[in-house]
Amino acid sequence: MKRLYFDVTKCLACRTCELVCCVGHSVSKDFFQALKEKKVQLPRIKVSLGKGKTMPIACRHCQDPKCVDACIARALTYDFEKKEVVHDKDKCVGCWMCIMVCPYGAIRPDEEARQPVRCDHCVEIGEPQCAKNCPTKAIKYQEDNKK
Amino acid sequence: MKHICIIGNSAAAISAVEAIRERDKDSRITMISDEEYPAYCRCLISYLLAGDISEGKLALRPQDFYTQNKIDLVLGKKVVKLDPKKQRLTLADNEKIEFDIALIATGARADFPDIKGINKEGVSGFRTIKDAKDCLTWAQFAKVASVLGGGLIGLKAAYALRKKGLDVKVIVKSKHVLSQVLDETGAAIVQRHLEHHGIDVLPDQDVAEIIGNGQVKAVKLGSGKVIGSPIVIVGKGVKPNIELVKESDIKTEFGIITDEYLKTNVDGIFAAGDVAQCFDLVRGAAYINALWPNAIEQGKIAGANICGEKKAYAGSLAMNSVEFFGLPIISIGLKKTEPGFEALEFIDKRNSIYKKFIIKENVLKGFIAIGKINNSGVILKLIRDSIDISSIKQDLVSDSFSYARIIDLVGKDEIYTNIPAY
Question: What is the pLDDT of residues B251-263, one digit of tens each?
Answer without folding.
Answer: 999 999 999 999 9
